[in-house]
Amino acid sequence: MTGTAELSRMIDIRQITGAPVVIDADAHERRRLAGRFGISAVDAMRAEIRLSVEGETVLARGRLTASIVQPCAISGEDFPVAIDEPILLRFVHPGAEGASEDEIEITADDCDEIEYEGMTFDLGEAVAQSLGLAIDPFAEGPEADAARQKHGLAGEEASGPFAALAALKAGKSDRND
Question: What are phi and psi of 114, to 5 degrees?
């Protein structure tokens, strides 16, 4: 995915040491990530990951932190969100069996597996995908309650991400009666 990925950091498994890999997205990468995930901005994004190799399997453990700005699911107004997520990934060759639990102390169910071929994989793209998964598409900002009040969405049953749609449907049904 080099060249097209918003955040590419190619890792050669022959070059992995015990030192953590730090990924700090630059302004251009953050702008492209915001566009990819449909949010207003990625103000900061950093991942610190330790890699360990067992044969051709690479285990990645670390932490992703980010400061993003996204629109409220109710009001549409932008608001800041802090992301702080653990990262636990396993890079494997296609069709290869993962290492046993004794070798890496986790099971395949405990982490996401990402296939790679050859001797390199894109850790940056994996971190970008982790960011995408950490973004709550139904996050509500500080103006959500005011928007509910303004648009008559504050009834007892009006809650959750589909409340606005239910209210619109009810309003349309009332007019058709």
Answer: -125, 125
Q: What is the mean pLDDT of residues 99-104?
A: 43
With tokens 């932490």, the residue in question is: 63
Full domain range(s) for residue 166: 143-177
Strands annotated E in the chain: 10-12, 21-24, 41-54, 57-71, 78-92, 112-115, 120-122
Give whole-number Cα distances, 137 to 25, 45, 66, 76, 145, in Å: 22, 18, 16, 12, 17
* DSSP, residue by residue, 77-125: -EEEEEEEEEEEEEEE-TTPPPPPHHHHSS-GGGSEEEE--TTEEEHHH
More confident residue, 170 or 28: 28
Whole-Å CA distances, 113 to 8, 27, 53, 88, 98: 18, 29, 14, 9, 9
Q: Is 4 among the domain residues?
A: no
What are the tens digits of pLDDT across the range 24-80?
999 999 999 999 999 999 999 999 999 999 888 999 999 999 999 999 888 889 999
Pairwise CA distance, residues 172 & 28, whole Å:
44
32 and 74 in a single domain? The answer is yes
Query: How many domains in the chain?
Result: 2
**pTM tops 0.70, yes or no:** yes
Residue 5 lies in a domain: no
